[in-house]
Design a protein that fits this description.
Rossmann fold; Histone, subunit A; single chain; 6 strands; alpha/beta
């Protein structure tokens, strides 16, 4: 039998970390984080990095192992993640992977899709349009030419928008048309475990989490990162809104409301992404962990 990669997915704030710790302790195995926002050591509160006590209760990999000044792509993560999983499977037939970054999970379980090279001038022109006309103009352009991609990627991330548009402009084919290639063969079997709840419950949990982050000192964390605000790693929910506040563009109350709204939007895109995967065994977020363990052991 192939070793297993138990992959826990679901929207943000649903309880994935707690489940991953329970399973890691039960199977005495390590945890791979596939949350791309948690890779950076300068970011803790706004990325919901597990608490120190949680990190000590099970060995974690790919948490705060990079600097925001490092260039670390999803391709890099695929290479490093596969190597680490292969190493861990030498001593344990099970490894846990947890995260809400659908593309990064896909990179490990299925491999990345192959995209053709496009002329650098296309990207340069898109970056120029971003600077002159703003992100909304690029978002609208993508919506018109590739609504499927528009509804599934992080549309608040200009790098993702530009990548999708440059593929379309360079090939004449939508970015989404390149996403149906055969999966790469892996040395392990992936067992997908999903946690779900009514959207109203998820959104309420998100609102509570944002309030808790502010109480924990998120604003001070963001203040310390202000000199680096233009780095790609910091162009993410929870940081970009507070940068706007610190820049004097919006009030603090409005910034907090925007964080909640944008996190809810992110959760909606997570719903869309994960609901396309028929291999996921879904459990209510209130399920007893023994039910999940029984399912895994039955495979």
């Amino acid at each position: 039998m192939k070793p297993k990669l138990i992959t826990i997915v679901g929207p943000t704030a649903i309880g994935k970390t707690a489940l991953s710790l329970t399973l890691a302790n039960h199977y005495k195995c390590d945890i791979i984080s596939a949350d791309s926002r948690q890779f950076y050591k300068e970011m803790s509160i706004g990325t919901a990095v597990p608490k120190t006590s949680e990190l000590k209760s099970a060995t974690h990999h790919f948490i705060q192992h990079k600097s925001i000044e490092d260039n670390y792509s999803v391709g890099d993560f695929e290479r490093d993640g596969i190597a680490k999983i292969r190493e861990l499977h030498q001593t344990n037939s099970k490894v846990i992977m947890v995260g809400g970054s659908g593309l990064y999970i896909k990179a490990i379980t299925d491999g990345l899709d192959d995209f053709p090279d496009v002329n650098q001038s296309i990207r340069d022109n898109l970056n120029k349009k971003l600077k002159e006309k703003g992100l909304k103009s690029l978002q609208e352009e993508l919506r018109l030419v590739d609504e499927k991609t528009y509804n599934s990627i992080a549309i608040d991330n200009p790098h993702r928008i530009i990548r999708a548009l440059e593929i379309y402009k360079g090939t004449g084919q939508p970015y989404s048309s390149f996403l149906s290639k055969p999966k790469k063969k892996r040395e392990f079997e992936t067992v997908f475990i999903g946690l779900h709840a009514e959207r109203s419950v998820v959104y309420d949990r998100i609102n509570q989490r944002v309030d808790a982050m502010m109480d924990q000192g998120l604003l001070d964390e963001v203040k310390g990162l202000l000199p680096y605000k233009n780095l790609n790693a910091l162009n993410t929910v929870g940081y970009k809104e507070l940068f706007r506040y610190l820049n004097g563009d919006i009030s603090l109350d409005f910034a907090i409301a925007e964080i909640k709204k944008n996190t809810r939007r992110f959760a909606k895109r997570q719903f869309t992404w994960f609901n396309k995967n028929d291999s996921i065994k879904w459990f209510p977020y209130t399920s007893k962990y023994n039910n999940v363990i029984k399912y895994i052991d039955s495979l």
